[in-house]
Fold this protein.
Amino acid sequence: MRRAVPYGVDMRWDELFADLAGQLEAGLGAERAELVAELTRAERAGVALAGRFRAHRGPLRLTLRTGEQLAGEVTDAGTDWILLATPPREHLVPLASVASVAGLTERVAPPETAALARLSIASALRALARDRQLVRVLTPGSEILGLVAAVGADHVDVAPVANDTMRPSGDRVTVPLHAVVRVTHG
């Protein structure tokens, strides 16, 4: 609070300038703090979940949209999927199937490269088809044990196998990619 200087008393210029400088610093400090808070909110708004998964190291727990819970470690992540290791199995999980995550880091990986941006869930499924890997494809209504036979732009064809022979039955089941909850290998 400023004191009034009585008439006829010498005013101290250094006190006046110190007071003005203090007021200016306080105003700038508050303005700077608000600007930093706004920039932090804007930066956080641009963070994608995939970037946080790519930066994560260590265990975490997923709850899928079916209510199923998986605990494991992220071994890889694309733009719309993660690969979760729960030894001896690995689960390819579309990000759209993740209802919640416990234990995820707040760190964010650097922006995706052009090559990484092209690695969609369909790309990961095509690799399974190429390698003729036996998988379990979980949807909200079923689980299909089989081989990935073909992958389209928005669907996957699975060739079911008979449990006793592990040979394809000759049938194919087509699953829209949006219905895939997880694909388990191992």
